[in-house]
Amino acid sequence: MSDVNVITVIGAGTMGSGIAITAAMAGVEVCQVDVDQAQLDRAKAYHAKTLSRNVEKERMTPAEADEATARICYCTDHARAGDSAFAIEAATENEALKKTIFGQMVDTYSDDCVLATNTSSISITSIGDSVEAARDRVIGMHFFNPVPVMKLVEVIVSPATSDDVKARTIALSERMGKTPIAANDFPGFVSNRVLMPMINEAFHAWNDGVADPESIDGIMKLGCAFPMGPLRLADLIGLDVCRDIMLVLHEGLGHPEKYAPCTKLVELVEAGHLGNKTGRGVYDYS
Ligand code: 3HC
């Protein structure tokens, strides 16, 4: 198994841009693809900020930061796709969209390229079945936000995923300084099956008037030693992402009482208040 030298990251949103800079800092060349030039510009600014923070903290030299910058190319198409041994899809959490992108990935990348998805909750088996001939190369590679900081990669195989693809995914995760841990292909896997109902319950507690958001978060931070409370974390993740993951749990596991997204969460999403990325969610960041 040879080292991966070039990867493509499809989607330059919060997760995709985080994956790209983490790979570049680990010495991997990255083609950051997004159909939206404005999203690529935001990713570039985030990369510059992350690198300058690392230089400031003396975790890397200015020359190393320049090298990491030079390793990333920003593309609105798959210009360097042919070189990639590994492609990571990090687009919006929508099954139909992901399947369309996977179809494009199969058509574009080499027959040996690993086709990974950063999905938070969607079935790897179902995505694999949509590209039948390539389903042995489809794998879940679930990073956590903020990607440069969080140590975990949740690795999810389908029954069709080959052992070689799993081994290459684990090797790349480790090269990126992450700890890969495997989970089986159930809705939400482990992380979001456990985390999202807790976040959703925090919205119910707010909606029911149990306490205001600051108090809910303060209680969970101080009482349970969480680095941030569940409502603040929901803003960081993105309220639309939280809602979408609850819908996947709801559709995949049944139990509407348990998994239906709280109306308070849905209302904020419908009002366009998606959290940090829009400047307002549960809290106002303006
Ligand atoms: N990108 C890069 N670095 C970041 C960052 C970002 N977006 N946000 C914070 N950091 C860095 C800071 O620069 C700082 O680095 P330093 O060592 O240079 O000072 C370090 O992280 C700590 O940040 P802060 O001092 O600003 O604040 P905190 O100590 O409160 O840490 C936090 C921030 C790391 C986000 C911490 O609050 C935390 O761990 N929160 C929980 C995050 C979490 O649970 N993530 C998982 C979400 S679930 C998920 O992603 C799955 C998906 O499917 C939904």
Description:
This protein has 286 residues and is an alpha/beta fold. The chain has twelve helices and eight strands. An eight-stranded mixed beta sheet has the order 3-2-1-4-5-6-7-8, with helices on both faces. Strand 1, helix 1 (14-25) and strand 2 form a beta-alpha-beta unit. Helix 7 (191-207) packs across helix 9 (230-237). The longest helix has 20 residues, at 37-56. The protein is globular and about 55 Å long. Bound molecules: 3-hydroxybutanoyl-coenzyme A. 3-hydroxybutanoyl-coenzyme A binds at residues 50, 53, 57, 120, 144-146, 148-150, 191-192, 195, 227-228, 233, 237, 241.
Task: Give a quick set of tags describing it.
286 residues, Rossmann fold, N-(1-d-carboxylethyl)-l-norvaline Dehydrogenase, domain 2, eight-stranded mixed sheet, 12 helices, binds 3-hydroxybutanoyl-coenzyme A
Task: Name every ligand kind in the structure.
Answer: 3-hydroxybutanoyl-coenzyme A
Strand-residue proportion: 5-15%
What form results from the Cα inertia axes? globular
What CATH architecture of the largest domain would you give? 3-Layer(aba) Sandwich
For this structure, what is the CATH homologous superfamily of the largest domain?
NAD(P)-binding Rossmann-like Domain
- Class based on secondary structure composition and strand pairing: alpha/beta
Short description:
With 286 residues, this protein is α/β, with parallel strands linked by helices.
